[in-house]
Every structure is written in structure tokens, then in C-alpha cells.
Amino acid sequence: MTNCLICNKEEKVEFLDNYKPQFKEDESYFKKAKLYRCDNCDFSFVNPMPSLETLDYFYKNIYSSKERPPYWATEDYEDQKVHYLEDKNLSYLLYLTTLIDFKKIKTIFDFGCSNGDLGYALKIKFSQLDLFCSESDLHCEKILKERGYKNFKNLNNINQKFDLIIVTHALEHITDVNYIFNKFNDLLNLNGYIFFEVPNCPKEYWNGRPYDGLHLLYYTKKSFEKLAEIHGLDFINFSFSAHSFENDRNYQIEDLKSVQNNFSFYKLKRLIKKLLPKKIVRDLKDFKKGKKTRDKAKLDWFANNTGDNCYIRGILKKSLDKI
Ligand SMILES: [Zn+2]
After folding, report:
1. How many Å lie between the centroid of ligand 1 and the Cα of residue 13?
2. 59-318: CATH topology
3. How many Å lie between the centroid of ligand 1 and the Cα of residue 173?
4. How far is the CA of 37 from the centre of ligand 1 (A)?
5. Region 293-318: what's the mean pLDDT?
6. In the predicted model, is pLDDT for residue 73 greater than 50?
7. Domain map of the chain by residue range?
8. In the chain, at which end, N or C, are there fewer CB atoms within 10 A of the end residue's CB?
């Protein structure tokens, strides 16, 4: 039997499905993985987990390498630098600045921040902020340095506390969520906040999902309520966010098809881009983005709690009676 990775009990844990890797070549990293679900926490997880060495290698070198979605454009540095203005990041900015008084925030720690778009956008609006992160992906090193992040590769080397911990789309990639929340509690100032967003994975998610997208842990609202209870945290807000489950599945299928069928097409597209003057490539991209402002899918980033959102987000604070 296997124990739930949140409540640590085994009686409500049942086999859910076999793990479905997104890419054939990833099968060697996620050997014979199966999915289990705890009914007590409405939480699902991979078992057995890949080893920490395997994951470390994978995220450092493979995850956001060229030729893999969702990072088709990783080689274009100028493009990466303006990504913080995308709708998804702006929706985070609006949500956080509505619920938290940033004039009182001095230090931000972003766990698994990738290029650090959110902290960078916050720093532009609130110049007193100091940015810290933990990001092992070697592809992100240059931009994080330019943006003024101090990157702690090892959580055990951090000897200070933070006013805000950000963890967006990282908690589904880790192996031990209780370990991370214990760490967050140690790193959080008394009046600090934790902001999280992860995929929303109730039963509805599991129906017809095309693949498991390298995720190891699958949360729901109930999972976060259990985590908050175990770790002495209170919700400032909990919201369902982003597009519908159906759109999410369609985006996943599009990604899969582009890899399976159009690999050479994407390679050719990138080659043409390389041959064209950079200014023209950028103008073309801006033109495409301009067209997107008339696309109603844009609304998905700005309408929370529609009853059919594929992500969940929230802000947590230390419970007063636990302090
Ligand atoms: Zn459980």
C-alpha cells in the first residue's frame, strides 16, 4: 500500500491510472510510474516517484530545452525579456496587488520562478522590493541575474526570511509537498504571505486528459485546505483561475500534435526566423500579439471563479493562533 503525501494516511488511497508521459523520450525518466488518489485530501500523486537525481538532471537540462513545448521560443532572448507583459503575468499582478499591500513588502522569494516574470513586474511598480529565488534551470540564469534576483540553488543555504513567497506552477513538479511547506513556514516572516497557483485536478480533470505533463502532484481546493490545516496557515483568498478544462485539454492536444506531426515544420519556422533580420521577426510577433487583443480567449486570464477553471490559486498567511 501507499500513503497519501499530504495526510500520510493509506486507507483512502486508491490506484487511479497509469502515468502518461508527454514525450516518448521522457519514459526513461518516469519509469513504471502510476497515479494514486487520496479521497481524504482529493489529492493525486505519482508512485513510485522518480529519484531526486533524475529530476535534478531533468529540470536543469531537459525541461525547457529547445524543441520542446511549452518553450518553443526559449532561444529568443529579446522575446523572453518582454514576456512579463503577457496576460497571465498581468492577471497575477492584478490579483496580488488587490489583496496585498505591497508598500509593506520588502523581500520576495520565488520558488521555481523560471525567468522571474512576476517578481520583475512587481519590482517595476514597487521599487523597494528585493528579489530572491530558487531556480535550478540553467536556461534561466542569465535573465534572473539581469533582473537582480539572488538565486539560492539550495534551500538549506538560505539564512533570511521573506515577506512574500511566490510559488506558481512549481508545486506540481516536486516530490514532497509537506517538506516544501515546512521550509516555507521557516522562511516566512510572521506577517508574510504565500501566493500559489497550480493546475486544478478534481475528477473532472482526469476525464480525458491527453498526458500528465511531467506533473508529480495533483491538487484540488480540498488538498490546499488540508495543507493549510497541517501547516498552520489561513487563507486570505482562494480562487479558481484560467481557462476551462475543455480548453486546457485542447491546448495540451495542440502541443502534442505539434511535437508528433510538425516537428520539422517548427524547425523550419525557427530557421527562417534566424535568417530574417531580428527587427522584422519582432515586428511580426508584435503584429500577431496585436491580433490577440481581439481574441476572446484573453478573457480567461481575467475572469476567476467561473466554475470551470483549470487552475487554482490562493494567498496564505500564518494562522494567528499558531504564531
Ligand atoms: Zn490524504
Report:
1. 7
2. Rossmann fold (3.40.50)
3. 18
4. 8
5. 94
6. no
7. 59-318
8. N
